[in-house]
Amino acid sequence: MIELTETMNEKVVSLFSEIEDMNHEQVVLCHDKETGLKAIIAIHNTVLGPAMGGTRMWNYASEQEAMTDALRLSRGMTLKNAIAGLNIGGGKAVIIGDASKIKNEALMRRFGKFVHSVAGKYYTAEDVNMTTRDMEYIRMETPYVTGLPEFMGGAGDPSPYTAYGVYMGMKAAAKKAYGSDDLSGKKVLVQGTGNVGTHLIDYLTKEGAKVSVSDIFEDKIKKITDRFVVDIIPADEVAHANVDIYAPCALGGTLNDTTISQLQCDIVAGAANNQLLDELKHGTQLLERGILYAPDFLINGGGITNVYYEYAGNHSRERVMKQTELIYDTTCRVFDLSQQSGKTPHEAAIKIAEERIKSIGNIKLPL
Ligand SMILES: NC(=O)c1ccc[n+]([C@@H]2O[C@H](COP(=O)([O-])OP(=O)(O)OC[C@H]3O[C@@H](n4cnc5c(N)ncnc54)[C@H](O)[C@@H]3O)[C@@H](O)[C@H]2O)c1
């Protein structure tokens, strides 16, 4: 037996305190010397069904950073899946390392074996730096994987569905803020013209919104200006842009101490995960400034809905679109609850998600 030094003991204690704080069920550390695999599978909550959430590969600055990311992202999946009305729980995996250097077939298949080892308690899919090809490799070792290419029975690219949900959430926010969900003539800024941003711009321009865009890559902007009539806003001018609606569709953390005081908009509604750098503090700052915030984990749930029907074995585009459309009603409900309770929309959305988990959990108890 290895004797624990005092510092090792402290680490074990603090590791468990983080898991306890967020109330995770199980966290699996995966290691394989041969392939260089270091991964964490975080299973947050399986009350509604197996934990589902993608695998992210990132060159984390430290193992602690990777752990914190896995824990936060998996909790986020629990809330997202619950409020979307899906019968799945929340989980997420992270692989530590530079995808461009160490990702290969053997590493992905070894990771697939670890996914298999939790025996269906966790289903994976794509996230940052993962492709459908990687999901194919994982599928060689385990059936507990979604986000497969269409020729393998997969549901295909989730981005169009994510964009549709964001569009629905944005319209619900407009209804609350302006009394009408008509976006024609509204000035909307889409930050990040990637997969989701592009589909969102399509919906918005078709409705007659005055769209402006921002991206850090010129080629991405060019792809948009070749297709749509839009204004361009430099990346460092996004926070104080004179717009009605700001749609963050790039990175998380764009709602923070620096940006919130500069915002000119009435509404924030976008696809990026974890937009509020600090959930409570920055959610409250937006509320105090009278800016209506549509919770990210609620309105970006269209993509996971697409993956869910792949897992459930009864995927159809119509079905996913219909379920995604419900984001409109749920967003209205969240704003009403927020107004009645004086809590932020983010807190109100968490309450609705947690209540569903509790009530469905109760009916699962044996009679
Ligand atoms: N793809 C989905 O179905 C889905 C589902 C849920 C949540 N999300 C989240 O939505 C966001 C967008 O996803 P995506 O699939 O479109 O990603 P993507 O990588 O295709 O697009 C992101 C875009 O943001 C740009 N960008 C990065 N930093 C920027 C900055 N500082 N300013 C302006 N632009 C910047 C990138 O150049 C890129 O064009 C991500 O945060 C993602 O986690 C996506």
List the helices and strands and how they pair.
Blueprint lengths: L5 H17 L3 E7 L4 E9 L5 E2 L2 E4 L4 H21 L5 E8 L2 H4 L2 H13 L4 E2 L8 H8 L19 H20 L8 E5 L3 H13 L2 E5 L3 H10 L3 E2 L12 E4 L8 H4 L6 E2 L10 H10 L3 E2 L2 H4 L2 H11 L4 H9 L1 H15 L3 H19 L4
Parallel strand pairs: 3-5, 3-6, 4-5, 7-8, 7-10, 8-9, 10-11, 11-12
Antiparallel strand pairs: 1-2, 2-5
Helix pairs in contact: 2-15, 4-5, 6-7, 6-12, 6-13, 6-14, 12-13, 14-15
The chain binds nicotinamide-adenine-dinucleotide.
Report on this structure.
The chain has about 375 residues and is an alpha/beta fold. It has two domains: about 20-75 and about 90-150, Leucine Dehydrogenase, chain A, domain 1 (Rossmann fold, 3-Layer(aba) Sandwich), CATH 3.40.50.10860; about 160-300 and about 330-355, NAD(P)-binding Rossmann-like Domain (Rossmann fold), CATH 3.40.50.720. Helix content is about 50%, strand content about 15%. The protein contains 15 helices and twelve strands. The strands form two sheets. Strands 1, 2, 3, 4, 5 and 6 form a six-stranded mixed beta sheet that branches. Strand 8 (about 210-215), helix 8 (about 220-225) and strand 9 form a beta-alpha-beta unit. Helix 14 (about 325-340) packs across helix 15 (about 345-365). The chain is globular, with a radius of gyration of 21 Å. The model has no long low-confidence stretch (mean pLDDT about 95).
